Every structure is written in structure tokens, then in C-alpha cells.
UniProtKB/TrEMBL annotation:
Family per similarity comment: Belongs to the ferrochelatase family.
Keyword Phosphoprotein applies: no
Gene name for this UniProt entry: cpfC
Keyword rRNA-binding appears in the UniProt entry: no
Lineage: Bacteria, Bacillati, Bacillota, Bacilli, Bacillales
Gene Ontology CC annotations of this record: cytoplasm
Annotated Fe-coproporphyrin III binding sites: Y12, R29, R45, Y46, Y127
Pathway given in the UniProt record: Porphyrin-containing compound metabolism; protoheme biosynthesis
UniProt-listed SUPFAM superfamilies: Chelatase (SSF53800)
Protein name: Coproporphyrin III ferrochelatase
Annotated EC: 4.99.1.9
Amino acid sequence: MKNRIGVLVMSYGTPESMEGIESYYTHIRRGNKPSEEQLKELTDRYEAIVGGVFPLRANTDRQVRSLQDTLNADPRAIDLEFVCYQGLKHAAPYIEDGVEQMVKDGIKEAVGIVLAPHYSTMSIGSYVKRAQAKADELGLEISFVESYHMHPKLIEAFADRVSAKLNQFEEAGADRDSVRVLFSAHSLPERILSIGDPYQDQLLETSKAVAEKAGLKQWQFTWQSAGRTAEPWLGPDILDTLQTLNKEEQVEDVLVAPVGFVSDHLEVLYDLDIEAKSIAKEMDMRLERIDSLNSDPLYMEALSDSVITLIGL
């Protein structure tokens, strides 16, 4: 009988259908229902990217299945059986549900990993805190991969996607070295800088490594998808960056590489593919985005190796 290791695969979560958007938004707002105007705005954004069909949740399901398959195919794990469980921050199955299911299934040892490569106390830290609290309550031994932002296979996967899109720019007649590559990630409140949070530094490290591997000449980092709160968020925002590139440098071709995201979801499919593209079009700029990692084998191997290394194999 192989020793079973539970793997709690955590992510932000997304509604299962258009009908689930209100309850999802309410959970994000810590139990406070959104106003009709707020709900309409979010619903309209989902409608714009999925047209009433909702494939986003299925993507996470595939990632979890693919990671389990990759873990169990690793020769280092020949005496182990990995069983992956989902734990979502703002939708069922919640993080606590995933931990509880492990215990019900008789799992004694577990590892937690988040589908986000970069650590912040406000993101990864909050996932870990919730999972650890539930594990302590139920007596489950669990350890966590807190970041994997410089894993060679993650860097390779991103660099491959950057190179593939630059090839398309070249085929369309653009000068490859003149294409401005914008690495981006979800903004967080500026206050994380005062506590020495590593989020920004890790993102810049990833961006630099990808740029070097892809042989980039023109690249920079920008933020996106900032929350609408009174406190300041990290910037500049990508929409402002595009305006600056157009007015001050007359940049015509832009490739966005959202290295802070690993999946196709709202911040990629709407904030970049619709909103940023619309702004770029108004300025006669060509804007393209690299394909998301989703279940890419290299990404799955980066996750798998991070888990297996953590448990000491």
C-alpha cells in the first residue's frame, strides 16, 4: 500500500455560473452584498468574456487533475500516491472544505500550494493562514510551498510564450526588438511595501529572468487590476503605462506578459484582452498578450517539483 500524500491546490476561485456571481462577490466583500451597480458591472464583465457560458471553473479543475497526474508520474515518488484536492478562497470548495475532505479520506500528511507563483502576505499568506488553521483544528500535518517564482520550468514556460508571440509580431512585419514587452501582475495596496513584503521583488525577479531567457531588448514592469478602495495601490497601472508609451515614446507594438497570473480568468480575459486592447486600439497601438499557462506541462512540472522537493524527495 503506497503512502498517500494530500496536496491542497489553492486558488482565488471563480463563480460556477452567471447565477453565482452575486454570492461570489459577497464573499469577496466579507459578507457585504454588492450594490446593484457594482453587481451589474461585474456581471457585465463576465458576460463580455464568457457570453453566458462559463468555462473558467473547468480550467482550474483541469489544472488540479493535471498536477495530480504529473506528481504521480515522477519517478522520485514511486512509493507514494499523491491525491490533489481543491481549496478556493472565495468559492466552494473553500480552502477549509479541501482540508476537511483530506481528513475524511484518511490523509495524514499534506502539502499546500497556490496557483500563484509569487508570495505576498495579502495573497499566499492568507491562503496558508486559513489552511493551517483548519489543519490544526482537525489534527492534519500540513506544510506549504510559499513561492516558486524562480523555478526554471516556470521561467521557461513564460519565455516560450513570449518568444512565440514575438514571432507573430515579426511575421506581421514588426521589428522584433522594437516590440515593448510589459510584464504585469495584480496590484496590491502600497502598504505592503512598508512591511517588507516580497511580492514586488519576486515579480521583478521573475520578469528579469524571463526577459533574459527570451532575449528581450525592450521590456518593463507594470501593474493591473487594482482594487477600487480609498488607499493607494501599487502603480503605474497598465492603462496609464500604455498612454505614456504612446505619448512619450511613440511605441507602436506592445506585448503583455501577465507573469503574476497562471490562468485565463477575469483579470486576463477582461482587463487585458478587452479593456487594455481597447485603449491601445484608440492610440493605434497593436497590443497582444501571451497565452496563459493554464495546464501547460512545464507549469505542471514546476508545481510538481516544488511539492516533491518540499517533502524531501
